[in-house]
């Protein structure tokens, strides 16, 4: 049974950095693409980034381009999101998601991803 477990969230000051991790188990996850989404109360879940099965292709939301980096280590079945220059508007619950295809979708939308983690809270505040 597939399980995605996020970790690495926490409280950080504006301008700081965090690394989120998503550990996948119970599935041949290295064949599939992964995405990171985030959600704040009262708003829809927003696509942040996606990485293809091999890691050769990545996509980012405009709001995080140049600040966030997605990468994966298929030997560890883990996907990472390195977040730098964090802003208060980055505050959200961050979710990892698996897509049942090797490539990322043209747009980062929830229906394109089939399995989700439980989320990890990121708070950017002074």
Explain how this protein is built:
- This protein is an all-beta fold and 126 residues long.
- Strands 2, 4, 5, 6, 9, 10 and 11 form a seven-stranded mixed sheet that branches. A four-stranded antiparallel sheet has the order 1-3-8-7, with no helix packed on it.
- It has no helices and eleven strands.
- The mean pLDDT is 96.
- The relative contact order is 0.32.
- The chain is globular.
- Helix content is 0%, strand content 47%.
- The protein starts with a strand and ends with a strand.
The N- and C-terminal alpha carbons lie at a distance of 40 Å
| Number of beta-strand segments | 11
Overall average residue pLDDT: 96
- What would you call the structural class? mainly beta
Order of helices and strands: EEEEEEEEEEE
Please tally the helical runs, counting DSSP H or I stretches of 4 or more residues.
0
Strand content: over 45%
Largest sheet: 7 strands, mixed
Radius of gyration: 13 Å
Seen as an oligomer or otherwise, the chain set is: single chain
- Taken from the alpha-carbon principal axes, the silhouette is globular
Q: Low-confidence segments, ≥5 residues, pLDDT <50?
A: none
Task: State the share of residues found in helices, binned by percent.
Answer: under 10%
């Amino acid at each position: 049974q597939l399980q995605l477990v996020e970790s690495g969230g926490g409280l950080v000051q504006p301008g700081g950095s965090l690394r989120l991790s998503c550990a996948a188990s119970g599935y041949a996850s290295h064949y599939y693409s992964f995405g990171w989404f985030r959600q704040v109360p009262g708003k829809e879940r927003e696509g942040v980034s996606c990485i293809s099965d091999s890691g050769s292709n990545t996509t980012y939301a405009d709001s995080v381009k140049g600040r966030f980096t997605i990468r994966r280590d298929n030997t560890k079945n883990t996907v990472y999101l390195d977040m730098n220059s964090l802003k208060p508007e980055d505050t959200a619950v961050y979710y990892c998601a698996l897509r049942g295809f090797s490539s990322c979708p043209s747009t980062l939308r929830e229906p394109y991803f089939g399995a989700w983690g439980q989320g990890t809270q990121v708070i950017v505040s002074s």
